[in-house]
Amino acid sequence: xxxxxKVDFVALSLLPSQWRLTLGEQLRRGVSPAExxxxxxxxxxxxxxxxxxxDSSYEPALLRAAAVRALRRGAHANLGAIxxxxxxYPLTLGVITDPPPVLWARGSVGSLGLTAVAVVGSRAAxxxxxxxxxxxxAELASRGVVVVSGLARGIDSAAHRGxxxxxxxxxxxxxxxxxxxxxxxxxxxxxxxxxxxAVVSELPPGTPPRKWFFPLRNxxxxxxxxxxxVIEAGDRSGxxxxxxxxxxxxxxxxxxxxxxLSGRNRGGHALLRDGAKIVEDADDIFEExxxxxxxxxxxGGGRASNExxxxxxxxxxxxxxxxxxxxxxxxxxxxxxxQRLLPRLLDLELRGRVKRAGGGRFVRT
Length: 365
Hints:
Number of helices: 14
Number of domains: 3
Number of strands: 14
Oligomer: single chain
Helix content: 25-40%
Largest sheet: 9 strands, mixed
Order of helices and strands: HHHHEHEEHEHEHEHEHEHEHEEEHHEE
Distance between the termini: 22 Å
CATH topology of the largest domain: Rossmann fold
Strand content: 15-25%
Structural class: alpha/beta
């Protein structure tokens, strides 16, 4: 990718989130980031409330200058800037309706492309909730699954620690810049996560935590994952936002039943009443995931194998050798929705039958 394109993607990420609702659709249609930036800035008011920048003026030249500064700061903080068109950009995240134009990351970027499950829940978790989160995190990670969560107090940090306890991989998605760990007492935990996993954010380096960033980051938690497991969520828990995002993205939603007397898990029980699968241990999660059965991998490398040979998957017949296709192309050819196509493409990628060609496109190997 040329340096200018990376600057344009970062500049897009500095725009207000509501301006970017159709960004994924436009990028998948082949609109360049430079053209998209010009379109958005020319069709919107030049001054609005700023989310990520001190300067509330949204002009292409000023945004590109701010993007250059962000890239310099990121390089100084040893952060990688993975843009939507990069091969390293997570496949599952790139196909959601509103993918972040750029994902800032510290740690093992390769962990973002592995099969992942999100474990989320209450910050004010009970000892029972903490214990369940740690156990699920350990069980998932010991079998090669990347555990995704938000580094928050309570359930999130317990899930991360559970994965780390078995030397597994885990990914933390922040509601601040990657170089501004929140809460501050989890700085050492973030460092541990970055050894084999990753700390990521869509927000440019130096961005402090703000309350409206956390609902936005929840779509990234679900977007990186094949399924979302909710542990102890109250009526108004942010975890329910993650669950709703997961459903919109075609992901599985599961929940752990809790104490009906405490009221800590009313939101989780509501999910169960609405059809979410009950989770008592990691086997329940693997059963829901279906076709991908992950082998035990103490090193947390995340290798996977299928129970059955998918080499004759008819989906491969829709891909000519050397031809790149995006989800929309394959959806039109197969008659299947993108939500149903994505898990099958991930399975085929794990088996080496297809690979990503950048920009959310696939090619048959």
